[in-house]
Amino acid sequence: MTAQTDDGIEHTPARSRLASVFGLVGSSLGAIFLAGASVGFFSAHDPSRPLSTVGLLVGAGLVGGTVLCLWLAARTVLGLSRSARSEIVAPSVRKGRTLTVLSGLLGAAIAVIMLIGQPQGFGAPAFSIFSDAPMQGWAAIALIALTCTALPWITWAWHRAIDEHEFDAYREGALYGLYAYSLISFCWWLGARAALLPSVDGVAVFFATYTVWGAVWLWKRYR
Predict the structure, then answer these.
(1) Does residue 1 belong to any structural domain of this protein?
(2) CB 22 within 8 A of CB 218
(3) Is the CB of residue 73 less than 8 Å from the CB of residue 26?
(4) Residues 6+ away with beta carbon under 8 Å from 146
(5) Is the Cβ–Cβ distance between 110 and 85 less than 8 Å?
(6) Residues of the chain with pLDDT under 50
(7) CB neighbours of 74 closer than 8 A, spacing ≥ 6?
(8) Are 97 and 150 part of one and the same domain?
(9) pLDDT digits over 100-146, tens only?
(10) Cα 8 from chain centre
(11) Which range of residues forms the domain containing residue 76?
(12) Structural domain tally of the chain?
């Protein structure tokens, strides 16, 4: 969906771009998790025995869901790409968008390594990447190397490329992320001390903090 301004150039409305970004994130995560679930489902099946009708339906649903999510992600990327080409943007903005895509690809690579780096390999459940399950040494070394080299470089280059509006959105997201971290960690810690909640899960708090941070940044940046 586009709107034409007085300059005669078609522009994609900000709300439409925001919906596209959230759709891309959701479809990409869905593809990753469904692909892992598909691999785990078929790896757990005994090849000497045929799949039942229910098993075939479940397997077909997982594979079909993976393909659908990949198709939705690809369609969204193509739509955003066409929108970006129709806009007149500064080189710094274009560079910032490129670095954002690179960071997303890096995150996907990290998720795949975390999945296949477990003892079960591709047979590990998709959601096990969020657990404290054992990990093979090569995977841990690769993840540490990526986190200490590629991630800082992308972050540094992105901060040099973004404009004031982008930086303000990023900073406000970080502030709300800090608020979320303070609230969740403190309340969870108190609940655990009173035996009302399980022990504090640092990974869960970490992901909750970054989820709030990213959601606020996307909202402020693209609304």
Answers:
(1) no
(2) yes
(3) no
(4) 106, 109, 110, 113
(5) no
(6) 1-12
(7) none
(8) yes
(9) 778 878 887 887 888 778 777 666 665 666 677 788 888 899 999 99
(10) 36
(11) 7-88
(12) 3
